[in-house]
């Protein structure tokens, strides 16, 4: 067999193989739960048994007695509010992650690509934001803007863009002096074209991993702010504020338990997915064993520690 | 130092340039409608000076240790914080110690059993730990262990029947110990158990992953193989060689974990009515209490800086190469 043939020959059935991420059970479980919640988020208002704000049922009735998951102190159906809560929280969490990723990537790319005082100024700014624990800064911002769900989202964006900026900057810094990028510039590409055509494709992977892990953080932050009364306002059906409503009714365990489980499963799904994605993208944290004596892959992807979240 | 100045600037700007109305919040809707009351209030707190002047006034007062008077409690912010900070430090330090011990054990075991069932279980457990909403967990733990099982004490730092110890460090457990009061010590420690346990779960999830990675890196190194080849037992190899080699990256993550704990306390303290920084921050934020908010931001910023300093010093202690460089 010629060398050429050996290099191009593919194992039989290779086209059937799933990409490496989907071979991890963690990713499959995570994706399944996430998709299920997305479906609920989109469709819940159409099929929940009671309107989420209707106070028409007997108060504080336990699960199984007329309603699936019981009712709260105002006679509202916990199950209906739980499902409607998905359509409150999940789209906002996804939106805020996309917004922070876009802002962070642009800032990081500009800082890393142009360097000099631009880099210095932008990075001092990110340092400043990161000098606060996220929840405390988000709380201050949300309180100053006035308590509302949308202000909580803005506060969450304010505290979460710097991590994308840092990752993007360090990637761009490493990439911009590589030969293929320099060659592109010598071919006459403008800085912006080069950034988009040559550099961007190598930044996308780590940013997507980071964003997936960040969806969980976003859900936790949003529901945490609502729990503190700085996010969703009554009577909005939102998981965090449902749990804070349970503080006043300890004996009705079902009011707080189920929203907490909802948050847990959503966050877990995205964490599973993100973790499996990281394994696929980042060779240094891979679970698979590299043979002793074989040079390990260079540290190409620097993912930050997931910092302080509730 | 520059960062500290930046921190004051951020808190100041944030609390001033955003559309909340602190005057209405402090006086109530009725009083805010009376122009004379508003005028007196504005003059008393210097709220009608231009913003840069207000900022300089704030910095000048800061240099004298004066953080202003809380609009919510009516007491000086500095003295409010003086009681709140030790309460939070007590929880955070205990949680760091507990989670470091547990996470080191889990991470080391997972690294030794890489890719086996144990490793996967540890991975899933730590991911679940990272996914738990702490405020919900606090609520469930409080309901279960205090209200239903009755094996944990209720909220606060002490049982109502006991008097707080003489203030030496502000940490109740330490103060009771210095005072030689064993009943008080046990009670204070019991009150710590639930909040610390709840906060630790998240941090354990965070730390385990990193400790596993750091241990893995060291496990394949030559000096560890040499130690094994010498015939040292597995216990001595892990403690004396592997963990020592992995201590620097672990130290970095512990610094970060401490920061995440400060965030976590905000959500957990309010459930346990723990009179710390978190509860204070929440009260200040919901009352639009500007001096209170700025004080908390400043104190947390300072804690962060001190923490980074301690981590830097410890690098030198743990690794002679850092000292020489």
UniProtKB/TrEMBL annotation, chain A:
Q: Where is this region: Disordered?
A: 289-310
InterPro entries per record: BP-dependent_transpt_permease, MetI-like, MetI-like_sf
Where do the TM regions start and end? 21-48, 90-116, 128-150, 170-187, 207-232, 252-273
Q: Does the keyword Kinase apply?
A: no
Q: Where in the cell is it found?
A: Cell membrane
The ABC transmembrane type-1 domain extends over 86-274
Protein name listed in UniProt: Peptide/nickel transport system permease protein
Species the sequence originates in: Quadrisphaera granulorum
From TrEMBL, chain B:
Q: Which residues form the ABC transmembrane type-1 domain?
A: 85-315
InterPro entries named in the record? BPD_transp_1_N, MetI-like, MetI-like_sf
* Transmembrane parts of this sequence: 89-109, 121-142, 188-207, 250-273, 293-318
Location of this chain's protein in the cell = Cell membrane
Q: Name one GO molecular function term.
A: dipeptide transmembrane transporter activity
Q: Which UniProt keywords apply?
A: Cell membrane, Membrane, Transmembrane, Transmembrane helix, Transport
Q: Which GO terms describe its cellular component?
A: plasma membrane
Task: Kindly give the membrane topology term recorded for this protein.
Answer: Multi-pass membrane protein
| UniProt xrefs under PANTHER family | DIPEPTIDE TRANSPORT SYSTEM PERMEASE PROTEIN DPPB-RELATED
Q: Which family does it belong to?
A: Belongs to the binding-protein-dependent transport system permease family.
> What name is this protein filed under?
Peptide/nickel transport system permease protein
